[in-house]
Each structure stands twice: as structure tokens, then as C-alpha cells.
Write a structure and sequence with these properties.
The chain contains 12 helices and 18 strands. It is of the alpha+beta class. The protein starts with a strand and ends with a helix.
Length: about 350
């Protein structure tokens, strides 16, 4: 019997997305010869072993109120596993593998991976250094540059400099990057805090908004291209699935478009040539490897509309597993269904 700890929620702006991903993961995970321990982390940072049987309560954010919940925490002591607190005291349950279904801050930035590492329990996804480097978009860009792939022109900007002289920061951006320009926090996902700025008047509010989420942000050149995503799976010999494409049906693929509205359209395979599809998959594996990733990641690109040039955008080391998420859809299109994909990432965790 394999004991699998599934972690969801988290102290993160992407908490709600994690809940939807977790419901899909728990519903689709193969239960045969497995004991599954679903543990949620509230926005306040409290850990609870979910005592309910209906995973829909997790997606609908009703899970915290379940009377069968117990306080639980992962011990950093090797071999201790999950500690469950109830009226009978503290029970320690050995855990064979951890599946973090956590997005963004405190979930895929290396923070919780450090706890997993201390516990000695195998876990799905990248290890500490790769997770941290991949979460920080400015660090990601520096490492990705070593592969030779083209990237959008960018500036790294800091909150302390903004607070000293916001006008000077606005001038710096306008002197180096033409409108429209993207303003984005360095360490958030799901497009949280991201703005597409078309005029000087909109620049200051966009900077103020981005700095709410991070002390370091990017100003980035707009690339007029198709949004291409590649699912990568593996450890030492990673493979890439057939590339997919997102048509946002909006100004850009923001949080609302991803999770709230129905304007976006996914295409698998992407509407690019077979040659470009092969190229973008090759670049995805190169970037995954350069960053030291393991297990799984989704690597995002643009393919320019005028010249069909591949431009690296960003990497997501714990991609969404919601019913509309591209990562499981891309592998599904290549013949690896959701349940089998979950089995595979758990196998890779043990091998890493």
C-alpha cells in the first residue's frame, strides 16, 4: 500500500486555482493500493487533513468547514511523515510520496520543497534550486539566455527604486521599451498582477499594481505572436508533448481569461508547422534542463506572426491541473490520460 500526501491551497494569491487543480487530481488519481491523504493549507497558513469524501467541496472552497477535518503537519524529522492531531493525541503516518498541488508563492518557489527535502520524502516536481530559479522570472531569463533562445527585451525593476522615484522608473521603461509593454511581478503565476500597458498614463498604475505582489518586477517587450505551450515530463531524459496553443480571445491571457471567462480557445496541436512544433519542443527540453528541472513543467513560448520566430516566455514548474488546464490536455492528446499522467509523475518523484 502506497501512502500519498496530496497538498493543496497555500498562502498564495493562487490559492483558489490550487483548490480547483486539487479536486481534479484527487478525483482522477488511481486509488488502487493507495492511501491518499488530502491536506489543505488555508490562506492563513493552517494545515488541515480534509475529512470529507466529496472532493467538490475543495474546488468550491467549502473544505475548511468540514467537521471531520483534523489539524495536520509535515514533520521535518526524517521518517516521521505526516503528524495528525486529534482528540486521541498525535498520530504519525509514514508517507511514501508527496504530490504538491500548490501554485505560486510558498508552493512552487522552493519554500515548501525545502521542507520536503528535510523530511526525506520523495516529492513530485522540481527540487529547491530549480523551483526557486524558475519561479523568479528575472532569474529564469538569465539562465534561459544560456541556451541561446530568443527572449523579449526586458528590464528588472525593484520596489525600493520605485518608492524613491517613480517618475524616473517610468522614464527608464519608456526609453528602453516601446509601448505596449507588459508589467509583471517576477514571482507570481496565473498572470496575477500582470498588466498590458499601452500609454504613458497607464504605466504608473500598472507599476503600483505589480509592486503589490512582489518587490521585484519585469517590464517586458510585447511580442506579437501565437501563445504556444509545451508540456515537459521526465528527470534525466525529459520528453516534450505535442505543443498546444492558446488563443486568449482578449488583450492577453490574464487571470480572468484563464479561470473565469470563456473567451479563450485551446488548440492541440498548436496551429504551427510540424517543423516549428518540433523546434519549440526541443527548446522546451533545453530550458527545462538548463534550469535543473525534474518531474514536470510547462514551458511557454511565442511564435511571432510575421517571421515565425520562437521566443521564450516563461516556465511553470507546477502547472495547473484544472479541468481546463493545458498540461494534462497536451499529454492526453499524446495518449497519456490524466490518471496515467499522475501515476507517471509519482514514479518520477521516486526516481529523482
Amino acid at each position: 500500500m502506497q501512502t500519498v500526501l496530496v497538498l493543496f491551497g497555500g498562502v498564495s494569491p493562487e490559492h483558489a486555482v490550487s483548490l480547483v487543480s486539487a479536486e481534479a487530481v484527487l478525483r482522477n488519481m488511481n486509488k488502487e493500493n493507495r492511501r491518499i491523504l488530502p491536506v489543505g493549507i488555508t490562506l492563513e497558513g493552517k494545515w488541515l487533513l480534509f475529512g470529507g469524501e466529496d472532493y467538490k467541496d475543495i474546488a468550491e472552497d467549502k473544505w475548511e468547514q468540514n467537521p471531520a477535518n483534523c489539524t495536520a503537519f509535515l514533520s521535518p524529522e526524517r521518517g516521521a511523515g505526516l503528524c495528525i492531531v486529534s482528540g486521541n493525541g498525535i498520530e504519525t503516518v509514514p508517507v511514501d510520496v508527496i504530490v504538491p498541488v500548490l501554485h505560486g508563492e510558498n508552493g512552487e518557489d522552493g519554500s515548501i520543497q525545502g521542507l520536503f527535502q528535510l523530511s526525506g520524502i520523495p516529492y513530485v516536481g522540481c527540487h529547491v534550486c530549480a523551483a526557486a530559479a524558475s519561479m523568479d522570472k528575472s532569474v529564469t531569463k538569465l539562465i534561459a539566455a544560456t541556451t541561446g533562445v530568443r527572449q523579449a527585451n526586458w528590464l528588472t525593476l525593484r520596489r525600493a527604486d520605485f518608492q524613491k522615484d517613480a517618475a524616473a522608473m517610468c522614464r527608464l521603461i519608456m526609453e528602453n521599451i516601446a509601448f505596449p509593454v507588459f508589467i509583471k511581478p517576477c514571482s507570481t503565476g496565473s498572470s496575477v498582477g500582470v498588466s498590458k500597458v499601452k500609454t504613458e498614463a497607464d504605466l504608473l498604475p500598472a507599476l503600483e499594481n505589480a509592486f503589490k505582489y512582489d518587490k521585484k518586477i519585469l517590464a517586458e517587450e510585447f511580442i506579437n505572436g501565437r501563445e504556444i505551450e509545451v508540456a515537459v515530463l521526465g528527470n534525466d531524459s525529459p520528453k516534450a508533448a505535442t505543443a498546444g496553443e492558446i488563443d486568449a480571445g482578449a488583450e492577453f491571457y490574464d487571470y480572468e481569461t484563464k479561470y473565469v471567462t470563456s473567451t479563450s480557445q485551446a488548440y492541440i496541436p498548436a496551429r504551427i508547422s510540424e517543423e516549428l512544433n518540433a523546434q519549440v519542443r526541443e527548446w522546451a527540453v533545453k530550458i527545462f534542463t538548463a534550469l535543473g528541472c525534474s518531474g514536470l513543467s510547462r514551458v511557454d513560448f511565442f511564435v511571432t506572426r510575421d517571421t515565425n520566430e520562437i521566443v521564450f516566455n516563461e516556465i511553470n514548474t507546477l502547472p495547473g491541473f484544472t479541468p481546463i488546464s493545458m498540461y494534462p490536455k497536451m499529454w492526453g492528446a499524446d495518449g497519456l490520460p490524466f490518471a496515467a499522467l499522475l501515476d507517471r509523475v509519482i514514479e518520477l518523484a521516486a526516481e529523482a
